[in-house]
Write a structure and sequence with these properties.
- The complex is a heterodimer.
- By secondary structure, chain A is mainly alpha-helical.
- Chain A has one domain.
- Chain A has 14 helices and six strands.
- Chain A has a two-stranded antiparallel ribbon. A two-stranded antiparallel sheet of chain A has the order 2-3. A two-stranded antiparallel sheet of chain A has the order 4-5.
- In chain A, a hairpin with a 3-residue loop joins strand 2 and strand 3.
- Chain B has twelve helices and two strands.
- Chain B has one domain.
- By secondary structure, chain B is an all-alpha fold.
- The model of chain B has no long low-confidence stretch (mean pLDDT 88).
- The chains are: A mainly alpha, B mainly alpha.
- At the A-B interface, helix 5, helix 11 and helix 13 of A face helix 5, helix 10 and helix 12 of B.
Amino acid sequence: MNRYAWIALALLGLLAPFVVYPVFMMKLLCFGLFAAAFNLLLGYTGLLSFGHAAFFGGAAYVTGHLVKNVGLTPEVGVLAGTVFAGLLGWAVGSLAIRRQGIYFAMVTLALAQIVYFVALKLPFTGGEDGLQGIPRGLLFGFIDLNRVAMVGGNPLPLSLYYFIFALFCLGFWVIHRAIHSPFGQVLKAIRENEARAISLGYKVERFKLMAFVLSSALAGLAGSMKCLVFQLASLTDVNWHTSGEVVLMTLLGGVGTVLGPPAGAFTVVTLQSKLTMVGPWITVIIGGIFVVCVLLFRRGFIGELGRLLRRPL
Amino acid sequence: MGMSVQTVLSQVMLGLNNGVFYAILSLGLAVIFGLLNIVNFVHGALYMLGAYVALLGFTMLGPLLGKPDFHLNYWAALIVAPLVVGALGVLIEKTMLRRLRKFDHLYGLLLTFGLALIIQGVFTNYFNVSGDAYDGKPESLSGVVDLGFMLFPKYRVWVIGSSLAVCFGTWFVIERTKLGSYLRAGTENPELVKAFGINVPLMITLTYGFGVGLAAFAGVLAAPIYSVSPVMGSEMIITVFAVVVIGGMGSIMGSILTGLLLGMVEGFTKVVYAPASSTVIFLIMVVVLLVKPAGLFGKEA
């Protein structure tokens, strides 16, 4: 990816709300970041977490609670949600990295289920109804995130959009930096050959944990963003279905590619919104895509594209 | 303490009742994992499918065949459901899982996760998520038995007895017979076993079919107790995964015993502190990971 490609993508993001329905575009950004954060773990460290919804949804609850019931400003709420997800990730990660491979996936799934039960039972989460009507509030105390700008007769929530877009860029930049740093190289070494990384003197456990915390914190950032956009934090966000969906997004776009997970997320979210008329059949379709992906193109479409162009995307 | 020995014992018995389901399902997972090296995520969905074969066989098969009076009775369902689901398993293994053998084991997990979504999704479309009652429980299993310390439903005694028989039967076949020795050898070194002229791919297919057949058997047993619903499998499978993490999938007997034990612990928790009963197995998993990371009977994967 050269500099011009990045600039083009950034321009696309800046202009998108004038072309695409902004709330939909913001949903894409939230799930795009979620998948990119997840990919840091699966794609670059080789760890399959089946419990990432716990961080995504957990952060959404924390942000929602702090903004709605405590009255904090949105940026503090988002920060708190992200930090919470990071801490939760530290707890879950420390336990999960004690087991390898397939067990790792099962441990994360089971631990995420505890978070689900807790979210169901805690008094402030609203149980089955979730936290509804979360105010977007004043960013830094003076920018009203509810304000809409009239563009060509259409009310567009531009303040909120650019706040979300900025957070997405920040998160994506952190991931990009992490991957291309010496730290990222060690993660890839662990993915390729854990035993050799150990014999080279790297404290593999510590690197895995750091990757896990970073990934869960960023998944939390995505969850906090989602909570402000939809003004809602619900059990769906912490459900195992959501954990599965982020795996699918990443797989579909391309595991271990930079652009793949957001592209996969965009595809899945678009499908979900275009196919609302099929109702519950969407689960069957999602499952079908999963099966086809695993059987036929394990590189994902960005991965396949990168192979055609002979460069990593 | 207002906790009588009787309450504790009766909850432990009810817990044992859940425990046998954990045991059968984690046993199936262990058998499949041993030979195929995959975690069978679709196990829960196939357990649900087993329950639906019993339910639909009882209510809809007759009208479908044009004989409204015909019901697939409970005993027949106990045989038919594992066969139907086992056949589906054979199909899944032959057409899909087989292609993934040379890739990372995580792909097997992802594939079966996708299949679980498909099966659960289809049933969610046609059936009530809150569940349907199965009315085919045979007359001979209704009523209660006096166990001395409590009156226990006869049906549950049957569930516990038959499950234990199936579990220990499976253990016996795998650990004590010639066929089982082929299986265990195949787990250790499939290439060498192939060289001895044993049809390993066929053995793998049949093992998978048998493993998911066990899940369907458990589903039929569960039908009269729990309401039959499209989500019964996904709720079950996550708990069973925790059971498997606690016990480790390396040992057949280990997975049976862990399942039984955890069911009883869960039942006991209902007496002591009911709100924790849904999470106690997960909390035990946390403790086991801290104290004995490889699991109680574990070999690392």
